Amino acid sequence: MATLPSDIPAFAEPAPAPEEAPESKREYPGALVVVEGIDGSGKSTQLYLLKRWLEIGGYRIHFTEWNSSPLVKSATRRGKQRRLLTPTTFSLLHAADFADRCERQILPLLHGGYLVLADRYIYTAFARDAARGCSPHWLRNLYSFAPIPDITFYFRAPLDVAVTRIVAGRPKLKYYEAGMDLGISLDRAESFRIFQERILGNYDQMVDTDNFVLMDGTVRVDKLQKQMRQIVAQRVNLAQFAPKSKKKKKEKQKAAL
Amino acid sequence: MKRNGNKSAAPEGAVAKAGSSKDGRKSKNGTGGSAPSRFYGIALPGVRLEELSGSLIVVEGSDGSGRSTQIALLTEWLESQGFAVQTMGLRRSYLVGEDIDALLAENAVTRTTLALMYSTDFFDQLERRILPALRSGLIVLADRYIFTLIARACIRGIGRDYLHGIYEMALRPDITFWLNVRPEIAFDREFKKAQTISYWESGRDMSLSNDLFQSFIKYQSLIKREFEYLSKRHSFKEVDGEGSVSEVNRELRKQIAAHLGIRSTHYQPSHALSHLWR
Q1: Using a CB-CB distance cutoff of 8 angstroms, which residues of chain A are in contact with residue B32?
Q2: In the predicted model, what is the mean pLDDT of residues B63-67?
Q3: Contact B166 A138 (CB under 8 A)
Q4: Residues pairing with A36 in the sheet
Q5: Cα B210 to the center of its chain, rounded Å
Q6: Domains and CATH numbers, chain A
Q7: Which phi and psi (to 5°) does residue A129 adopt?
Q8: How many CB atoms lie within 10 A of CB B138?
Q9: Residue B122's Cα: distance from chain center in Å?
Q10: Is the predicted pLDDT of residue B2 greater than 50, yes or no?
């Protein structure tokens, strides 16, 4: 049987035909702002407040969150109920879900000139799936079709603070949420804590490599929100997302004065 | 029959037809053949290669190439020789098989999503059905494998390197047969079978032509070109799929027998499968 010699990585050779440019390198008029951090770091609250601020101002925005599409709901339910998910299929299922959101929402909206706000993004998969044992290199490739955010806010809270927030608010930690599939500990709370600790470590490693904007999750909510709004205003050209009719009105008003 | 991989249609009488003497195998080292199964790149977490004593045999080819027919016949032949067989194929995973069917029916799914759903389907079968089967020394017959998935995604503009990156944790088959047929022949066979041509097999999502025949031919030609490339890179055993069922089957048996160390390749399908034998 003339199979390839086992030491030659058949997939590593260069591809022969020219390929389409990766999606992430395409230019678009929109902007992408994402929040990342472990459970209980305060990121969702802060993104919600940012969203309200922009909504009230009438900006062209769209809010999207991790694992929200109906596409993989039945599969995720099936897999989780019967605990069939391996680190690989868990990761692929979430990637499929993200791809659906990316191709049908995020990319069209970015091309259509929207400011897109995402509660969790690909870094969630990098941190969490690597904590499950997936190869970081494999994960990076898996999500390479995703556009790179304009700002990635990383909300960092000490492990104890975050874990306390989550455990207090939830009657029971779910099997996969607690990382029980890793077999770290039979105690759910303990397993959750160790799993979150690993994820936190993985996040911390990405601060430099992925240009995270570090946010202190222990700062009072309104103060932190003020910082967040300032950073957004500095780094994103908000005027571009303001409703055009308003601009015209303003111009008319100015002209009238 | 789609969901359940155990399509082994072993009808009564199949075993009695085992024409060979000395109950089939005279393997070089167990049922595994001589080449150890390997991954393309990084190994799946938790898999020890030396445990995998079975053989993975892949049959690739377009719709109308005769894959399913050949796999049904090979299953019977191998079982008659005393080998236990497990099958796998596209959309047969418990985890997402039905979900992909539903997505395909809607025609609303986008290319990366579909590619990733197929990869989920693939790895679910690999990890939970195929690897256990190989550990138990079974012969796994794969009705299509990663090559079809790569070819389909590639011609839709998804980067080859991207796909290779995802499937580097796939197991390298012991033998990959490619039943090569011209698109025109595949069209005739498919049309005869179903009286129409499927939306996806004619690549209608790619807007190649409004004419169904033209679309099918163009699409299958693109796939074929990808396969020619994959064939070289992965040392496919190319088989002329336009030959008669019995001719193709004889060729496949010959090569599988050599791999498994079976002496006799004599085979006559049982009554239950004789309708396939033309």
Answers
A1: none
A2: 93
A3: yes
A4: A154
A5: 30
A6: 30-238 (3.40.50.300)
A7: -70, -30
A8: 20
A9: 12
A10: no
Query: Which tokens in the block code for residue A198?
Result: 């690993």
**A93 near A39, Cβ under 8 Å?**
no
Let me know if domain B39-182+228-264 sits in CATH 3.40.50.300.
yes
d(CA B146, CA A144): 20
**pTM summary value:** 0.84
Which residue among A1, A85, A104 places its CB closest to the CB of B33? A1
Tokens of B58: 């892949």
Length of chain A equals 257
- b/e burial code for range B38-64 (CB count within 10 A of at least 16 → b): bbbbeebeebeeeebbbbbbbbbbbbb
Which of A1, A11, A145 has the CB atom closest to B112's CB atom?
A145
ipTM entry: 0.81
Domain ranges of chain B: 39-182+228-264
- Helix H, strand E, coil C: the string for chain B is CCCCCCCCCCCCCCHHHCCCCCCCECCCECECCCCCCEECCCCCCCCCHHHCCCEEEEEECCCCCCHHHHHHHHHHHHHHCCCCEEEEECCCCCCCHHHHHHHHHHCCCCHHHHHHHHHHHHHHHHHHHHHHHHHCCCEEEEECCHHHHHHHHHCCCCCHHHHHHHHHHCEECCEEEEEECCHHHHHHHHHHHHCCCCCCCCCHHHCCCCCHHHHHHHHHHHHHHHHHHHHHHCCCEEEECCCCHHHHHHHHHHHHHHHHCECCCCCCCCHHHHHHCC
**Cβ–Cβ contact A214 with B under 8 A:** no
Reading the block at residue A94, the tokens are 């979430």
Structural contact between residues B129 and B89, judged by C-beta atoms closer than 8 angstroms = no
Single out the residue of B204, B196, B171, B219 nearest to residue B40, CA to CA.
B171
What percent of chain B is predicted at pLDDT more than 70? 87
- The residue of chain B with its CA nearest to that of A135 is B42
* Distance from C-alpha of A29 to C-alpha of B259, rounded to nearest angstrom: 57
Give B213's contacts (C-beta < 8 A, 6+ positions apart).
B187, B197
Task: Of B252, B274, B234, B264, give the one whose Cα is nearest residue B71.
Answer: B252
Query: Does B17 score more than 90 pLDDT?
Result: no
